[in-house]
Design goal:
- The complex is a heterotrimer of chains A (about 250), B (about 350) and C (about 70).
- Chain B contains twelve helices and 15 strands.
- In chain B, about 40% of the residues lie in helices and about 20% in strands.
- Chain B is α/β, with parallel strands linked by helices and about 350 residues long.
- Chain B folds into two domains: about 240 residues, Rossmann fold; about 110 residues, Rossmann fold (3-Layer(aba) Sandwich), CATH 3.40.50.920.
- The longest helix of chain C has 5 residues.
- Chain C is globular and about 30 Å long.
- Chain C has two helices and four strands; from the N terminus they run βαββαβ.
- Chain C is an alpha+beta fold.
- In chain C, strand 2 and strand 3 form a beta hairpin.
- Chain C starts with a strand and ends with a strand.
- The chains are: A alpha/beta (about 250), B alpha/beta (about 350), C alpha+beta (about 70).
- At the A-C interface, strand 1, helix 1, helix 7 and helix 9 of A face helix 1, helix 2 and strand 4 of C.
- Strand 1 of chain A pairs antiparallel with strand 4 of chain C, so a sheet runs across the interface.
Chain lengths: ~250, ~350, ~70
Amino acid sequence: MAEKLVYTRTKTIQEDKVSGFCPGCMHGTVMKLIGEVIDELGIIEKTACVLGIGCCGLQMDYMAYDNITSPHGRACAVATGIKRTNPDTFVFTYQGDGDLASIGLAETMSAANRGENISVIFINNGIYGMTGGQMAPTTLLGMKATTAPKGRDPKEHGYPMHMCEILDKLTAPVYLERTSCNTPQNLMHTKSAIKKAFVNQLEGRGFSMVEIVTTCPTNWGMDALGALDYLEKNMLAEFPLGLIRDRTKEA
Amino acid sequence: MARVFMKGCEAMAEAAVRAGCRFFAGYPITPQNEIPEYMSRRLPEVGGHFVQGESEVASVSMVYGAAASGTRSMTSSSSPGISLKSEGVSYCASARVPMVYINVARGGPGVGSIQPAQMDYLQATKASGNGGFRMRVFAPATVQEAADMVYAAFDYADRDRNPVLILSDGVVGTMMEPVELPPMKTEEEVAAIKESKRSWAIVGHKLDYAHRAWIQPGQWSTLLQQKENEAAAALYESWKSDARAEEYLLEDAEIVLTSYGICGRIAKSAVNVLRREGVKAGLIRPLTVYPFPYGAYDRIDYRRVKGILDVEMSIPALFLEDVETAVAGRARISTCLCSGGNIMSRDAVLRAAAKIMEGN
Amino acid sequence: MAKIIVIAERCKSCGYCVKFCPKEVLAIGSAVNSKGYEIAEAVHPEKCNGCAICGRMCPDGAIDVYR
């Protein structure tokens, strides 16, 4: 009996394009998961992705559905403009830690506080990837970066920011969870978290954010598998995975 | 159409709604506050959406998003707020996203003062953001002109798929005058405008890499970026014929006053006073400050003219630079200036004109 | 009999599939794609049960799985 194809790349990613991401970079993984969820929910034809600036923005050439690049940090504002005027369009933002938590902190907080009915996918790899390894708001203490050559020092650079917990102080957000894709189990859970964040929007419940802790092998100065180990020992220690808030039922 | 007595800011907001604007995001800053305030009441009445952004930076990006998904959208601010919006406007110009924005200018630089001024002229007409994009910039002198210019701006923006700026000021914005409001677009017309943008609007399309909507404010490929820059440059060039100015009593003018916006109106009343005193004065008042009406200055009879008087509420003089380019040395140019929120007085203009007539 | 196919041009030799395959079917081979990445390959195809963990973990969608 001929074998049946049980798993292949989601059709939402362009056929003949290989992503520009570094080997092992989980931007590719997450974008696959997003594509699979959009496909399974049958909403490709009404999807609009708002890309931040950074490695997250490299997706624009690979997605086969509508996408717009926002100014660095403004994705949640751009998404607000789209969603308010097109409530039937499914709008999600795809942002990195610099985009969402540094230059875009006000836009992120304010969109969450207004309870915009959008879904935010936040890739936290503790570094600025595209620009070559500068310190990000989520860079770990002691972690080296091109702008913190001796390692992040709280006296000078402050502390890593926990965005899910910060947004958890706001009344409006409906669903906040931090996940990772460093193991098959975590990957599958990330997919279900993404689906939950997307369904919340489709059912008009309001603001959801999934923070996905990932690796940046190149700018961490490691190979893909070494970065996985570093993530497990260090990133997850600072950014514990788990559900931060789920008010889906009440929303 | 009935004439109503209305404040400039509110007339501009109402004109936008009548032109089919259904999204506004803005932030409080004097002296343009009545625009977001008015929009917060009016837009919900027509099924539109208003958001008070957390900053001007966020507000203009909200407009970028709403406009990129097919809705006629507008924002407004005043001088320092306009500086914050330059990023968003540059993105709209780069990504060919149509939008309208209004600067109700005030004293500067920095936080400056909250009273009226014309100190953003170069910002408005030469570089409203990075990357060398250009925009049509209209300069209203009356509440009527302000309403009409906002109304027309939306058609220009859509036709060019480019931002359009209304360079107003604190006087026109906050004074009340009778105004005949432009006709209200029907809901069908508004819906048709949005539908006409569906092919490129970020609202979701069939899964087809080639026909998805793809709004990118820049290109990875330098060749593609240059190609886009060349197309934009050609578009800007095509606007030259749309330059407009009010040319008043130029034919026999021995002195020509030139000014835009509220100062243009003050200068015009000075011309009338001078004419009554037997002085042959004339006026050139640009209505579009980009494209600049250089041609109007060629219709001055330089054999007859003793001098040109540039009247503007800006120190240093800024509008003067375009006047110098337009006059190209064919006559002496004097200036009558005030700034920082002080409003130009007609007497000052008359004194400056008298000096020119006395030949010194 | 389950099997996997590695799409050579999409593989970036990151090693996730090799690490997470519960049956140790895969290994980084010596064959190289146009970008110079050594491509993962099924060195013990007979052990594959088509669980698709390799395909799911692959950041670049380089593995199709049949069962």
